[in-house]
Amino acid sequence: MPPPPPSSSRRRVAVVGVALSDCGRVDDASAYALHAQAARRALADSGLGREVIDGIASAGLGTLAPAEVAEYLGLRPRWVDSTSVGGSTWEVMAAHAADAIAAGHADAVLLVYGSTARADLKARRRTANLSFGAGGPLQFEVPYGHTLISKYAMAARRHMYEYGTTLEQLAQVAVQARANAAANPEAMYREPITVDEVLSGPMIADPFTKLHCCIRSDGGCAVLLAAEEYVADCASAPVWVLGTGEHVSHTAMSEWADFTVSPAAVSGRLAFERAGVGPADVDIAEIYDAFTYMTLVTLEDLGFCAKGEGGAFVEKGRLQLDGELPTNTDGGGLSAQHPGMRGLFLLVEAVRQLRGEAGEGRQVWRGDGGRGRGRLEDGGRGRLPEVAVVSGTGGWFCSSGTVVLGR
Q: What is the pLDDT of residue 7?
């Protein structure tokens, strides 16, 4: 299909294709192969030909990412992005891609990711320790043994001290994520867990036990964004990018003004303002959940509850598929999959839910009573979600990207 004619006005941008590669335990594929598998599936999902892709965004693989990934996929893009800010990378990249498409700098941008983190560890090609180096600002913290997990743990303890948040409330985040994963055949862990099981698990970094922390998996995914002119030729209904926001807070813990406030407080506000909607309009939330505290504080900072009330908010089952605010509807990084920078998986799940393609038992429906799972539209059983918020977090709450999507 030929590119659309140039336009003097900003174009609307839609997500037109999404897909996962094989995920979970993948011992017989390289990370490059997972990139390719996800990209092919996302393109097939869109119904478009590969010739429309003139932009690519990728990070986390290769010395010259995304040039190496583009070459492996046989693409010669005229627009590229390799922004790497940890788990929020993909939401930030989606914002950049949407801006580029809207301005006419690209017509269709592929966001693609793949990782064999689990398989590499099992095969002893790498160790479990993740080091961000010891130079720059980190030189003042590394000698004291701070790990990424311990930094999140310190922040969680501060929230508990300031607001009385309990271990049981944090554990509820993991319990509800697993409940959502139970309905997802692609989730790595689906067996129900209880609050007591979360609390009694092996300690990783106080107060986080094992089940407070994300799982380790292999996997990849891809998202294709395109200008509105391409939508008529797509295989599925578009999911529109309504608004985006990004924010960088700190690197050194000593420069973080308040451990109980994440950068989503800024990126979320910007995304909602630009989308023209607010938290009350959101039907589903897909939130980066490397640790249970990450979900809780992000919900506060996105405005779903007041600061300090996250514990009370999550303990009432609101995050489950039939809850007031279904969150991480695939089971999240705590139960579904987490091969590394998981932010792109959040976008895939949000699009599937908005399209009504999440599958029997996992699809969220809105009933007449507000948020929550109702019944099928064509049987008078409610309606599909209309607005989703996706929020990624990078580093140790160092960065955040938020994307508001609508159908």
A: 47
Residue 314 near residue 176 (C-beta atoms within 8 A) = yes
Q: What does the block give as tokens for 240?
A: 């529109």
The string of pLDDT tens digits covering residues 269-290 is 999 999 999 999 999 999 999 9
DSSP 117-184: HHHHHHTTSS-S-----SSGGGGGTGGGT--HHHHHHHHHHHHHHHH---HHHHHHHHHHHHHHHTT-
- Kindly state the average pLDDT of the residues 32-36: 96
- What does the alpha-carbon distance between residue 344 and residue 97 come to, in Å, rounded to a whole number? 13
d(CA 305, CA 170): 15
What are residue 312's phi and psi, to 5 degrees? -65, -35
Continuous segment of H or E residues that includes residue 225: strand 219-227
- Bridge partners (DSSP) of residue 261 are none
Neighbours of 105 (CB within 10 A): 14
CB 42 within 8 A of CB 19: yes
C-alpha closest to that of 109 among 66, 140, 153, 156: 66
pLDDT the model gives residue 134: 74
- Tokens at residue 307, please? 């600061």
Amino acid identity, position 236: S
Q: What is the pLDDT of residues 45-54, one digit of tens each?
A: 999 999 999 9
| Residue 234 reports pLDDT greater than 80 | yes
